[in-house]
Amino acid sequence: MLLLAALLTGCSNAGYYAQAIGGHLAVMRAATPIDRLMSDPASDPRLKSKLHEVQAIRDFASRDLALPDNGSYRTYADLGRPYVVWNVFAAPELSLKARNWCLLMVGCVSYRGYYDQRDAEALAAELRQQGYDTYVAGVPAYSTLGYFDDPVLNTFLRFGTPEVARIVFHELAHQVVFVNDDSLFNESFATALENEGMRRWLASNAAPEQRAIFETQRLRKAGFAALMHAYRDRFRALYDTDRADRARPTVAQRDAKSALFAALRSDYAELKASWGGYAGYDAFFGDDLNNAKLASLALYNELVPAFEVLLARLDYDLPQFYRSVSQLAALDKDARRQALTQLMPAADEIRQAQGSMTLSAAKVR
Length: 365
What we know:
disordered C terminus; globular; three-stranded mixed β-sheet; single chain; mainly alpha; disordered N terminus
């Protein structure tokens, strides 16, 4: 996404756009057609096995999910690093409103991406000097919205077949609908489609034990998301009580913020105990837990329930769902948000039904 913006933006922030162009072109140069790798006797047999599963996932995405049938995820690139880019998130010390950066073609987004982790860390340090809470997150995949054929990357192939399926479904969803200046809409739609894609893929392609593992992970993710949603509301309430002097936060404001983060960690410890000690989210609750981390989660989760309600009301007809989402995308931002917000109250009922569908599929298998 950054590449096209860079080509059209001129000399402003030249260093940033240069790394975006260079980084993306390096990814594309590293890509080799999967068919070629599969037919090459010199290819690693373990890689071949993984890529064979990728091919099945990619075919499923277009055949069963009505996602674009193009050259994306039909090539493979090993970048020799754990993430393709690192995103920088920033939020004021007493606010959950993420800082935005604006680019041509994609509009304004609430993060800034770098192909070199050191560059991302440097920007985060600069923003902290300006008083922002910051968070640097490694990203295993991104979408070029169909302008380029996005490759399968080692950065997400390493996570295993279910995670590859999740990422492919999510990133291809961005090629179906994408709205400038509305990251929350874009990511929530893609996450909702990802969830539905995984439900269908697991039902027809996974063994019972794999489905059970994924269902456990899904329930943990839902519990984590619910906890973070509740605390985002509490933080917003805290920050909204005193707007008098945001430029110079008082000791009392900082103490109240610290106390609320302590309460969040305590409630997470209880949630973790209910999971039997599962520690997969421990890193998120490290010493750098702050407003920027909370804001980054909202980007992917806040409106997902609304899209799930819409899909259910359309009887899970994906082409019709895409048409309806496209109609929402044509609205102005306020009208779009209002329409989705009105769907939220029905979300619990839909998710309970989805849970029953998952269990039924497992019994049939």
